C-alpha cells in the first residue's frame, strides 16, 4: 500500500515578475497538503500542462482587472493528469486516472466535482491535457461555437504552432474551410503546414500585413485570435466585410504594461469599416457537449494531430515555462512527473 503524502513539492511564486517572467521568479518548494475533506480526492500527479494563461495569475491582478493574482509562495495553477491515491468522493477510487486543476505540484488535493475520470483505453492519458483537454476544447469552442466556421470559408489562426492554434486550424480544415496560420519563424511555419494548413505567414519577417492579404484572396471570413497586438491588427486588415473574430487569448499582452492607447482607434476603425463581429470567449463557459466526442473522432481518424514537447520533473518547470512564453516551444508543453 502506497504511503499517503501530507507534504508535497510544488512550483510556487517566489516574487512577482517585472513584466517579462524570469525563471527565478518561480521556485520549487515543499508545501503542506490540507487534510482530505468530504468530496475531495488526493491525486499523485503524473503529468502537468504548462499554459500561457497561468502567467496572468502571477501579477497583482489579472489583466489589471478585478480578479486577484496568486499570493507569493502559492503554487501555480494549472491542469494535470494523475492517479487517485485516496478518495472521499463517491465517483473515484484509488487507481483511477483523472484530469483536473491540480496545480504545479507532485501531489494535489482536488475537489472531486472538478475532476474528470479518464478512460485509459483511449490511449496516453497525457492526451487529456492536449487534443482531449483544454487546448482541444478551446480550439473547438472558438472555431465551432463562437465563429461557426462553414465549408469554403477562410480562417486565419494566430500562434498557429502553439497547442490551441494548431488544433484550431486542423478543426477548420476538418469542417471544409481553408486555414491560414500565423507563426514566429520558418521552422514553426513549416510545422504548421505539415499539419495541413493551406498557408502560414511568419510574423517575425517584414511585411506581415501584405503577406497575410496575399494569403487570403478575397479576404478571410474568420480570425481565431490567440495573441492580440500588432499581429491581430494585421489579421483584421486581411478580413472580409462581415467577418467574425473569435478572441481566444492575448499572448502579446500577457507580459506588457497594459496600456496602448494609440492602437485603440486603429482597431475601432477596422471593426467599424469592415462590420466585424468580435467575440471574446471563455472555454469553461461556452464549450458545447459535442466537443470531446468530435475531437476524439477526429483524433482517431488522424484529422487532428498535436506534437508534444515533454520535460522531466518539477525542477524543469521554471525554465520550460519561460521558454513557452518566449516562443521556444512548439505544440503542447507537458511536464512528466516520476513516481507518485
Ligand atoms: N479563452 C479561453 O478559455 C482559453 C483557454 C485556454 C487557452 N486560451 C488562450 O489560447 C492561447 C493559446 O494557448 P496555448 O496554450 O496554445 O499557447 P501557445 O500558443 O503554445 O503559446 C505560446 C506561443 O505564443 C506565441 N507568442 C508569444 N508571445 C507572442 C507575441 N508577443 N506575439 C505573438 N505570438 C506570441 C509564441 O509563438 P510564436 O513563436 O509563433 O510567436 C509561443 O510559442 C493563449 O492566448 C491562451 O491564453 C484561452
Q: Main sheet?
A: 7 strands, mixed
Return residue spans where pLDDT drops below 50 for at least 5 consecutive residues: none
Order of helices and strands: EEEEEEEHEHEHEHEHEHEHHEHE
Q: How many strands appear in the DSSP assignment?
A: 15
Gyration radius, in Å? 20 Å
* Count of alpha/pi helices: 9
Structure report:
Strands 3, 4, 5, 6, 7, 14 and 15 form a seven-stranded mixed sheet that branches. The protein is built from nine helices and 15 strands. It is globular, with a radius of gyration of 20 Å. Helix 1 (134-146) packs across helix 2 and helix 4 crosses helix 5 (229-237). Strand 8, helix 2 (163-174) and strand 9 form a beta-alpha-beta unit. By secondary structure, the chain is of the alpha/beta class. The protein has helices at 134-146, 163-174, 186-194, 208-215, 229-237, 261-274, 283-286, 291-301, 317-325; strands at 7-13, 26-32, 40-49, 80-87, 97-100, 107-111, 116-117, 154-157, 178-183, 199-202, 220-225, 239-247, 277-280, 308-312, 332-336. The site of NADP nicotinamide-adenine-dinucleotide phosphate has 28 residues, from helix 1 and helix 2. Residues 51-53, 134-135, 138, 159, 161-165, 183-184, 188, 226-227, 231, 248-249, 251-252, 281-283, 324, 327, 329 line the site of NADP nicotinamide-adenine-dinucleotide phosphate.
Main attributes of the structure:
7-stranded mixed sheet; 340 residues; globular; alpha/beta; 6-stranded parallel sheet; 25% strand; binds NADP nicotinamide-adenine-dinucleotide phosphate; 9 helices; 15 strands
Amino acid at each position: 500500500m502506497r504511503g499517503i503524502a501530507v507534504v508535497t513539492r510544488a512550483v510556487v511564486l517566489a516574487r512577482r515578475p517585472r513584466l517579462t517572467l524570469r525563471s527565478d521568479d518561480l521556485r520549487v518548494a515543499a508545501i503542506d497538503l490540507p487534510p482530505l475533506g468530504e468530496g475531495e480526492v488526493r491525486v499523485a500527479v503524473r503529468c502537468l500542462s504548462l499554459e500561457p494563461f497561468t502567467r496572468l495569475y502571477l501579477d497583482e491582478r489579472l489583466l489589471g482587472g478585478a480578479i486577484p493574482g496568486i499570493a507569493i509562495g502559492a503554487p501555480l495553477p494549472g491542469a494535470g493528469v494523475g492517479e487517485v491515491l485516496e478518495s472521499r468522493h463517491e465517483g473515484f477510487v484509488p487507481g483511477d486516472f483523472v484530469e483536473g486543476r491540480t496545480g504545479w505540484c507532485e501531489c494535489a488535493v482536488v475537489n472531486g466535482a472538478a475532476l474528470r475520470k479518464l478512460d485509459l483505453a483511449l490511449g496516453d492519458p497525457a492526451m487529456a491535457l492536449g487534443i482531449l483537454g483544454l487546448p482541444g476544447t478551446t480550439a473547438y469552442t472558438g472555431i465551432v461555437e463562437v465563429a461557426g466556421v462553414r465549408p469554403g470559408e477562410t480562417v486565419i489562426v494566430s500562434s498557429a504552432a502553439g497547442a490551441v492554434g494548431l488544433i484550431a486550424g486542423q478543426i477548420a480544415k476538418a469542417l471544409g474551410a481553408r486555414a491560414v496560420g500565423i507563426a514566429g519563424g520558418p521552422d514553426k511555419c513549416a510545422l504548421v503546414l505539415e499539419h495541413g494548413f493551406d498557408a502560414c505567414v511568419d510574423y517575425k519577417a517584414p511585411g506581415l500585413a501584405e503577406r497575410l492579404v496575399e494569403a487570403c484572396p478575397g479576404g478571410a471570413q474568420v480570425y481565431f485570435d490567440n495573441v492580440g497586438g500588432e499581429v491581430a491588427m494585421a489579421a483584421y486588415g486581411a478580413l472580409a466585410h462581415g467577418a467574425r473574430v473569435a478572441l481566444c487569448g492575448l499572448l502579446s499582452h500577457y507580459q506588457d504594461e497594459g496600456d496602448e492607447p494609440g492602437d485603440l482607434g486603429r482597431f475601432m476603425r477596422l471593426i467599424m469599416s469592415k462590420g466585424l463581429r468580435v467575440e471574446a470567449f471563455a472555454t469553461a463557459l461556452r464549450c458545447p457537449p459535442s466537443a470531446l466526442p468530435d475531437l476524439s473522432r477526429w483524433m482517431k481518424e488522424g484529422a487532428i494531430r498535436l506534437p508534444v514537447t515533454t520535460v522531466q520533473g518539477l525542477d524543469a518547470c521554471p525554465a520550460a515555462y519561460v521558454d513557452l512564453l518566449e516562443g521556444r516551444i512548439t505544440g503542447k508543453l507537458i511536464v512528466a512527473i516520476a513516481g507518485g
